């Protein structure tokens, strides 16, 4: 009977959530449940937290907390967001580094994404700064052979002179503030896909730098260039790297790559690049 009663309370409270939220205009100071929403104050806090744990997180933040003080307190509670992290598998990399804001930690894990703009050449050269444009310059083409990710249909193509392009990522503008980066030092994962033409030799280069506030390098990943002989298998290759334990002060990431053909053929016979990626990874990958 007790379990049945608890289920009825949860279902009733959930059904009343949206109408109650609509009756309240957004404000910095929500009303108290007892004065504005009748019996909402009767919902036990542990039941209310369980309801929140089964709602979309954006709805909890943007709607539920506006209902009354009690609902806001639960929506802002550390226990709620710590439990969401636990249930969804967002585990700390270092147990000694406890988040000051579990809600921020949760959303940064939840909304992990590629920070590079236009990584697959779908918008031509938009978002990229051209550093070198040798030979017949950069060009965008469809992939010559299928990419391992079947949604990738375009790539950037280099020419017979060196072609390089870059992006600089402002971490604070992307939501990764200085205190978060310095305290957690989350893994920074980079990857890049590149392929030669089968009938022409080519060269591929990449350089990724973690920069401080003055945009000076703190750490650099710059492997030796990859070269391909003529009459190769034309397959796609992936370059990957993870920055870890890089210390405080990282504020920007500079991603640069490119290459050329090595036989000086007019046109676009050089290296192809696409589906580049830079991700901030606060939680342990499972």
UniProtKB/TrEMBL annotation:
Residues 17-38 are annotated as: Disordered. This is Putative F-box only protein 6-like. Keywords: Ubl conjugation pathway. GO terms for cellular component: cytoplasm; SCF ubiquitin ligase complex. The keyword Kinase does not apply. The gene is LOC118317031. Residues 37-84 form the F-box domain. SUPFAM superfamilies: F-box domain, Galactose-binding domain-like. SMART domains: FBA (SM01198), FBOX (SM00256). GO terms for biological process: ERAD pathway; glycoprotein catabolic process; SCF-dependent proteasomal ubiquitin-dependent protein catabolic process. Coiled coil: none annotated. One of its GO terms (molecular function) is ubiquitin protein ligase activity. It holds the Pfam family FBA. The lineage of its organism: Eukaryota, Metazoa, Chordata, Craniata, Vertebrata. Residues 105-282 form the FBA domain. The keyword Glycoprotein does not apply.
